[in-house]
Amino acid sequence: MIKTNLDYQAEKRLAIFLLLQMSWDVVLSQLHYIIPEESQHGTFVGRIAQDLGLDLGEINSRMLHISSRKEKEYFQVNLQNGILFVKEAIDRELLCPNTPFCIISLQVIVDKPVQMYHVDVEIEDINDNGPIFSSKEYNFLISELRPAGSSFPLKRAADPDLGTNSITNYELSANDCFTLDFQKHMNQIRSLELVLKKSLDREKQSVHNLTLIAYDGGKPRLSGTTKVIITVEDVNDNAPTFNQPFYQSSVTEHAGKGFLVFTLNATDLDQGKNGEIFYEFSSMGMEEISRIFSVDKNTGDITVKGEVDFEEANMYEIQIDAIDNGEHPMVGHCKVLVTVIDVNDNPPEMAVKSLLVPVPEDSPQGTTVAIINIHDRDSGTNGKVNCFISDHTPFKINQAILGVFAVTVNGALDRERRDEYEVVLTAKDEGSPSLSVSKILKITISDANDNAPHFLQPADTIFIKENNPPGTLFYTAVASDLDVGQNSFLTYSIVDSTINSIPISSYISINPENGKLFALVSFDHEQVKYFQCFIKAIDAGLPPLSSNLTLNIFIEDINDNAPIFSPLYSELTIKTPKSAQSGHLVAKVKAVDHDSGYNALISYYLKELTGKTTFIISQQTGEISLKRALTEFDSDEYRFHIVAQDHGEPVMTAMTQIFISLVESGEVAHFDNRESKDSFEEFSDTNVYLVIAICIISSVFLITLIAFTVIRWQKYRDEVNELKKNYKICSNTGGSWVYSQQTQYRVCSNSLKDRNDLIVFTPNSSHTPTNEEQANQQGAVLTSSYKVRHNI
């Protein structure tokens, strides 16, 4: 057959386009391996870790793994030596039918940090399929009038293999009348024709039985055979002919039914019925042609009948027979190559794979969260896809390699503010109109230890009554942590410190789990009045975070010490003149109490005095004086007891005995002179230094006492001024009275609601109660709920 120059140019352009299309993926891949099909499990593919420049020692820790768009996993990586091997045998004909290059694209992903590589494994065809004819025999009816050189299309054998493994040659059994003619296009036999070498003579031989053999080019060489039975008939001697054997046309995919693709025109030199022509699809053509296209038998119009889909086939080869209407019809043949033009009818396909679930809230910017694989079945601009992410999220999309996008962290994450995001991912192609697909990616944020424990207040004040039982629970430290899990698991401890050079751990302990503080000892206000304790709350995060609470602990006094007379004596003997007048100071007693406040305030009483008493004692000072002038009727001797009583609850007392002897004035002086003389006689020069030392010590003590009194008074003034700033001071007409024998205080009853604070009130000279009973009648507040100090 003679090919025109236009035919060769068209075939050349088509060959270049197909070669570029097939090599495109190879160029884009980072590694390219080739293995033969039917390779069994374990077949070596390549040293993928070495070829990618990965360290064998870290591919396991970095969790190297591969994935592909295929449903089956045909390959696997040995994480010990980095070798890529076959996991499941591959049948190229099943995996890539009608495809010149069979390439499995793999994505190699390693973590920490995330890196992705594109690897192509080309499945090389092997000659595992022999040529097969669709029928065991082909029958031809050929007129004896057909001239030499006439050709008759033969249906080619099929071979699923490619390249040299596909059909490369046909042979016809030896005969004198027929030969074979086949044309190759891109190294493939595109047409097969039986050519008449010389005219047939039915009278010499009416039937020709030939054998047609198809050979492939593989090793070993395989073949297939069929019978060609030719019947010679003496009928119509002119077959219809087309003006050219090959036509080209195009159609847009999804073209409507009835769309005109091409109009055929054949001519027949015969006349009458022998010159009448009708058209039909060749029986040698593909069966799907008649499903998609139809041909008008009278006009030769080829129209769309079914659905044209570019993604199923981008080109159709239609073989048409033009048959005359003679008694013995003759047939003319041609081919129409129909190219399908792609339209944007396929939205992108999106597959999302999360790599980091959940995402730690302290992840730095650029951390890869998920991988998006996008594929569009369309081609050209219609198949070019862009990927977008919803706004107002701390994530963004970056293109990693062709068709693969990475979702990365693009802002600060804070689980305490938001612990989950629903990110909308949209893939949109560049076709017209554009098509898109969206998916929602849920990203959970995991906790990091970024919040220290928090106490409600940095410091607190505690009051503990002395003589508490050991093991008493006196406080519970409570801290909170905004984190979760082990990051919010808190442990409490006491910061090491000392109380009077003794470790604080000897006094108190804390339950590390719930923060409960226990007293290990019974506190004594007379030894320890105040100390500070620092509580530390630490979480279990990595690294751990902590915070401190300062506790100001006051030991409250209770009345556990009775007054003690000073100096200690069981009986005091006093001489007083009979001539002493009313108010004469007879003696002065002194008792001390180791308690504080009201518990240490002492009053003095004379016990067992009846009738008109001669002596009185000052409740405040302990001074004993004459209540009236002595008479001659008074007794010369008096013996009575003095009681020292504190103001605590319960009241505690001490008692001493005093003996008063009434003597004449001269006797008192004589007695004093005698004592003085005796003392002087006993006083020797060796005791002079001792007396001087005692005087000096007494002077120093007196000066110290005065200074201490001044300091205490100044401190009292300062605290009162400070409390005036922080507490409401009652007017002269409001509030209730708290009675004291030394100072009066007015209590603001409306300021004491719901308070347990230690409150100091200023003195008020008006309406001063004269005694405790009157103070109580005026509404004195003496309960333990409101504590009033007058001797700060």
Structural write-up:
The chain is mainly beta and 792 residues long. A hairpin with a 2-residue loop joins strand 28 and strand 29. Residues 1-10, 14-29, 669-687 and 723-792 have low confidence and may be disordered.
Properties at a glance:
mainly beta; Immunoglobulin-like; 4-stranded mixed sheet
> What general form does the structure show?
rod-shaped
- Largest sheet data: 4 strands, mixed
CATH superfamily of the largest domain: Cadherins
Mean pLDDT: 80
Number of strands: 55
What's the CATH topology label of the largest domain? Immunoglobulin-like
The helix content, as a percent range, equals 10-25%
CATH architecture of the largest domain: Sandwich
CATH class label of the largest domain: Mainly Beta
Overall structural class, as computed from helix and strand content, comes to mainly beta
Overall number of structural domains: 6
Radius of gyration (CA) equals 60 Å
Counted by DSSP, the helix tally is 7
Main sheet: strand order: 1-7-6-3
Portion of residues in beta strands equals: 35-45%
Low-confidence stretches: 1-10, 14-29, 669-687, 723-792
